[in-house]
Amino acid sequence: MSPTESRAPVFAAVDLGASSGRVMAGRVGAGTLELEEVHRFPNIPVRLGGTLHWDVLSLHRGVLDGLRAAGRAAGGRPASVGIDSWAVDYGLLDATGALIGNPVHYRDNRTEHAARTVADVLPPAELYAATGLQYLPFNTVYQLVAARGTPALAAARRLLLVPDLVSYWLTGEAGTELTNASTTQLIDPRARDWSRPVADALGIDLGLFPPLRRPGDPAGRLLPDVLDETGLTGPVPVTAVGSHDTASAVAAVPARDERFAYIATGTWSLAGMELDAPVLTEESRRANFTNELGVDGTVRHLRNVMGLWLLQECLRAWESEGRPQDLGELLRRAAGEPGLRSVVDAADPEFIAPGRMPDRIADACRRTGQPVPRDPAAVTRCVLDSLALAHRRAVEDAQRLSGRVADTVHVVGGGARNELLCRLTADACGLPVVAGPAEAAAFGNVLVQARAAGAAGGGLPGLRALLRETQPLRRYEPAGDRRPWDRAAARIAGDTGPGKREEREEEEPCA
Length: 511
Known about the structure:
The protein is of the alpha+beta class. The protein has a domain at 3-245: 2-Layer Sandwich (Nucleotidyltransferase, domain 5), CATH 3.30.420. The strands form 7 sheets. A 7-stranded mixed beta sheet has the order 17-18-16-15-19-20-21, with helices on both faces. A 4-stranded mixed beta sheet has the order 3-2-1-6, with helices on both faces. Helix 13 runs antiparallel to helix 16 (376-402) and helix 16 packs across helix 17. It is globular, with a radius of gyration of 22 Å. Residues 13-250 form the Carbohydrate kinase FGGY N-terminal domain. InterPro entries: ATPase_NBD, FGGY_C, FGGY_N, Rhamnulokinase.
């Protein structure tokens, strides 16, 4: 490490994912951007009394241990701490500031009938016109409607989304970061503020939410007891970042200009385009596109599809059956399987719940008259071909709905390491794919902190230029004939063609 690099400040990025959390130490300076994972810890949900919860106290313990490790990397005191996590879920605090039970997991089935209740008050078209958010059965608005009348909600005086809850425990100061708030379906994306008409119509008390913060805003300093727990030397500021991990990941897309689409891959694939304003048309709603807020006033116009959750659940199923799979070897064998032999709709809500994923994939193939994949390699190829098809559909729809053109697709997040998925996505989209960085959420988290501290300058173009200059990226050119992809899409058109998809999405909120 050069003397200049050794003097560059260290920023601690807390990045909480659906299966694990980690703390990363990011070093940022002139021409310098380095990221080191200093601590990783599991995120294992707990089912209690029939309800699936996040073990948020265990996560907090992992954060504290990670901050101690980040302190060692920073010589005793990181320049700042930033926190990002998954979206929509929240913790409730009572009048004393104590947590009222562990947050409920978004995959819990408590929202099963909430969409009908909401639609009876606000028809889907009206709700979309106000908030621009894609229908997903676990959006915060549906969770709050499902929780109506419960003792926990009645006792609550504060509602904190997961990254805001962690920030509160570290600083004692409560706030609601805007990019994550935009996933609640209670934000007006044009005003970048709460939609009071929606909240009032549904009887949701916006007073439960503390004031909004924007990425780069100060979020307090580590409390004395946190300093004691972590061995850090104070003061250590906490900085609001794009606390929705996808907002941080998209901020770290190393694009050269505005002509790009992105796919943030991990448990979910979030595929779309970065815009200056939301797209609130009825056509966008029927395409099930969402308008989430990003860093620096941007809008993430995207569609959520299942992502690598499909493969993760298959791996869990095979392990439970006594057939554990080595992922690298499995992907090698999947690459040798016939392409596009069987595909499923990777955006289908039937794949949201955990359990029996290989069987459910087989059922979907059977239902659409396709060969049923019989072994792990064939199932894996089916999953990756299906994800590439879903990526193609989302990228094409994003361009059509926004009126913008993309000449490159950037794949960031964990899926950027999956060479087969990136290659298939390039072939399906007919566009070059630039893969990397894999740790995009952590990079975006660190860069927003660094800019707030004066260690990095400029807007998003400047931050992205630093990524291009310092991080390894891999480019995949499209190859082969696109007609097999067209035929594969047609095979599942009975479930996913424009007419059928519109019918299903019209029905889903009232199901």
